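Researcher: We're reviewing a set of sequences before deciding which ones to prioritize for further study. For each one, I'd like a predicted 3D structure that I can look through quickly. This is Transcription antitermination protein NusB. If possible, include the structure in token form so it fits the rest of the review sheet.
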Amino acid sequence: MASNRHLGRIIALQSLYEYEFRAKAGDATAEIQSIIAKNIEPYSKALGDTEFVFGLANGVVENQAKLDRELQPLAPEWPLETIAAIDRNILRIGLYELEIRVVPPKVVINEAVELAKAFGSDNSSKFINGVLGTAFKQLGLNNEEGEHEGSKSQVESQTNASEQ
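Model: Here's the predicted structure for Transcription antitermination protein NusB, in token form for your review sheet.
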């Protein structure tokens, strides 16, 4: 069974994917709160603390325009709208978590890669790892207060391993 946080990220990802799909389809009832609540319900006992899922998904939705602006230059040859919706939402979750600094960067990137392996295409995990590793380096996320000790070298080695 997945850890509570991992399961929470899966539910958040599924909720964000559904929200984006329904919103693009012109569904006026596409409200993230109700989508999250519906997706959490079957797992609420196993999950325990549901605040993590609501906070993560709501944070991504509230900051989506900012996250998208920051993601686009990180993979300039891949316009965000052409990236598969599942990968796009994994990137948003990962970047949001890197920026809020609740979890060490290595864990954030590893979790995003695991989501990509489980839900993305064959190359999604490498793409996600590369983009989030670049975000960590280029957006100054490793130089600001709150850096987790050893995280820069761990992320770099993880990024370098995926490039081989």
